[in-house]
Amino acid sequence: MNIALILSGGNGSRLGGDIPKQYLNVGGRSVISYSIKTFLRSPEIDMVWIVAKDEWQDEIKDIFEQFENTEILGGFSRPGDTRQLSIY
Asked: Residue 6 in contact with residue 39, Cβ under 8 Å?
């Protein structure tokens, strides 16, 4: 089984602003939606797991609903204090 991991727990502090960069709109869609769409279209991916803060999980679920094959959303994990801990 191949599981894709999307790290979406950062707060975008270097970019500034009120919204983390993965949730900003680019070309009419959030940045994270491009990653989600790519993994959903791949026949090599069986499940997608997302590391995200609680307050963004409903928005991510809404993004999944826009695409087919949404049943491969495995779930969520809360981010760690560092990127490495989020991966772990």
From this structure: yes
**Cα–Cα distance list, 10 to 25, 51, 52, 66, 83 (Å):** 16, 9, 8, 23, 8
DSSP H/E element including 76? strand 73-77
Alpha carbons 56 and 28: distance in angstroms, whole number: 18
Q: How far apart are CA 34 and CA 21, in angstroms?
A: 13
Residue 40 has pLDDT above 70, yes or no: yes
pLDDT of 11 reads 65
**What pLDDT, on a 0 to 100 scale, did the predictor assign at position 44?**
94
Say how many CA atoms lie within 13 Å of 34 toward its Cβ: 11
Residue 18 confidence (pLDDT): 78
Q: What mean pLDDT do residues 15-35 have?
A: 84
